[in-house]
Amino acid sequence: MSFISEYGFVLLILACAFGFFMAWGVGANDVANAMGTSVGSRALTIKQAIIVAMIFEFCGAYLAGGEVTETIKNGIVDAEVISPDLMVLGMMSALLAAGTWLMVATMKGWPVSTTHSIIGAVIGFAAVGISVDAVHWDAIGPIVASWVVTPMLSGIVAFGLFMSVQKLIINTDEPFLNAKRFVPLYMFLTGFMVALMTVTKGLKHVGLSLSSSQGVLLAFAIGVLVALIGVALLSRIKVDEEADRTFHYASVEKVFAVLMIFTACSMAFAHGANDVANAVGPLAAVVGVIQSGGAAEIAAKSAVPGWVLLLGAIGIVIGLATYGYKVIATIGKEITELTPSRGFAAELATATTVVGASAIGLPVSTTHTLVGAVLGIGIARGIGALNLGVVGSIFMSWLITLPAGAFLAILFFTILKAIFV
Q1: Which of 245, 246, 259, 230 is nearest to 169 (CA)?
Q2: CB neighbourhood size of 333 (10 A)
Q3: How far lies 17's CA from each of 99, 197, 411, in Å?
Q4: Which 3 state secondary structure label does DSSP give 282?
Q5: pLDDT bracket for residue 296 (50, 70, 90)
Q6: CB–CB of 112/401 below 8 Å?
Q7: How far apart are CA 239 and CA 176, in angstroms?
Q8: Which of 113, 84, 85 minimizes the C-alpha distance to 98?
Q9: What CA–CA distance (Å, rounded) separates 49 from 125?
Q10: Contact by Cβ (8 Å): 372, 150
Q11: Lesser CB count within 10 Å: N end or C end of the chain?
Q12: What kind and span of H or E run contains 29?
């Protein structure tokens, strides 16, 4: 106990700094998942994408980030096996390790998984630095399974969405008119899906609790509002005869470019909701232990403080604004050629999968989910449409991430123990 009472304030400041560093890494690296497809399909410029992402990443992190944060904070390690002082040092080392790996990956332009980074780091310090029994191995199974299931699921959803676009719009006699007719329905779906997950699951910690029926009604109203805004924007788009001569579907893609603004917003929101936990989950655990004076059992039951989510949200936004452009190009331009109609399907599929996972508190990899969706689009066009070399290097960076996070966490845990204990 004396360890925490003696260094409590210093540890809290350090933990906040490490949490902010990790959040910066999430913003700098993972923002490609939210914005890469929008930039790659030329629906948004990099500058516009960063502004959209800053607003919606922040809202997702602050409004809907609580559920997954709880899993990272309590679900991976056993607070009863680990002494409070080692829990504090371990979670701090996990933050520093994951943040360091993300910084390296971002410099290289690799779209790695921040979820893998932090979970690898937490498992690393607990299993090697303390005891193999300190890890909830039964809880790791569903998380690891989700890394395989979610890319497949989002790939299937993206494939289905893209095929529906082909059937309802592209392969018809009047593709432009059908685009203006059906795109508002896709906009409604986007608004409704993100709103439903947010209002029913994510708003409890900001003091707003709604019943299921109230949540569905509010989400429906938001979906209708999004569709109406979309209709107003689409009414300004006219057929561009000149562009259509060069590329038959140029005017149709302009309609989808409007839709992609909405899916980019939902994707950024979903990403903020799920991936803020990677930065603030360990920080919330440290804050809980320090505030409870070293009582790990009380800390495990304590709610995630609002200011911790806020710190994570601000860190994500700053990381995105300063270094986000590095990784955007890899996902947006190098896996397969994206147009707005293809990019929309990839983004909506990813957002649906990620927001659904956030609602049940499952920390999934947004990177895996989005790459799965983009691969789904590529497969719908034929395997030759994929840049298999880029796909291979992305898979390699994924394999390295978990052990890299674990190794760095063990290293930093040893250093912090030498300093404080």
Answers
A1: 259
A2: 18
A3: 11, 31, 18
A4: helix
A5: low
A6: yes
A7: 8
A8: 113
A9: 36
A10: yes
A11: C
A12: none
